[in-house]
Request: fold
Amino acid sequence: MELKELLFYEEYEQFYMMAKESVAFREFCRKAFGEDFSQDGFSDISQIDRILPYVPKDGQAHILDIGCGNGKVLGYVQKKTGAFIHGFDYSGKAIETARELFIDNSDFRQGMMGKIEYQSEMFDVIISLDTMYFAPDMSKFVDQIMRWLKSTGVFMAFYQEGDVMPKTENERTSVLAKVLTEKNISYECIDISRESYDLLRRKREAALSFKEEFEKEGNGEWYDMLVAQTDYADKSFEDYSKEMARYIYIVKKATDL
Ligand SMILES: C[S@@+](CC[C@H](N)C(=O)[O-])C[C@H]1O[C@@H](n2cnc3c(N)ncnc32)[C@H](O)[C@@H]1O
Reply:
């Protein structure tokens, strides 16, 4: 399949162009998420900090971010741990920015899930922040991820239900959980739905407070999109949790040996 035919390809090119230029968006991200990672949605600083304990701090670690966008999450992890950072994304604009921002001990590639390949047993940590949904074949992609991990490696998937993926009953019934179970891959799961609901409300408040700045920049349409993404903030947590959920899946390869 051609890049341009992939789900949301053009939208992400536009998004990462806006993220590069817009001061309002950077300030919005800081206010909503505690740090500007050019988030397309859902991961705030407290979620990202949950990655750090899994990254060896000896300066020898290699971490891969699947669908890394403009690399800002990886840049943060590198600053905190000294790791060599690897990322890929199908957005050429995102990868261009990542290469400009993070030059040392880094490898950023434009590539598609299911097509890109890395050496076996290369990574200490592989992260996927809201990107597993886009794998054309999640089962095959999980096989690839497990192959890319060192025998002591850890895979972390930050995974939302209720938008790209349908809401299922619980953390054991998601598409990803079922794939892992079918393969006898054990995992821990942290349910972060409640904190994601609180984040959604913060995100709504932050977006509203930057309305004028977005409009002055000619980015009114992005403002509208950010507000639309926070529709659920008007519901109670009980109603939200009937339709949405957010989990962190943690897979330690060593337990599967
Ligand atoms: C929901 S965003 C998450 C971005 C970033 N990880 C974050 O948490 O803000 C999905 C990301 O996956 C990328 N993406 C979507 N489909 C892809 C595919 N088939 N192959 C590679 N990257 C893809 C998009 O460009 C985008 O950066």
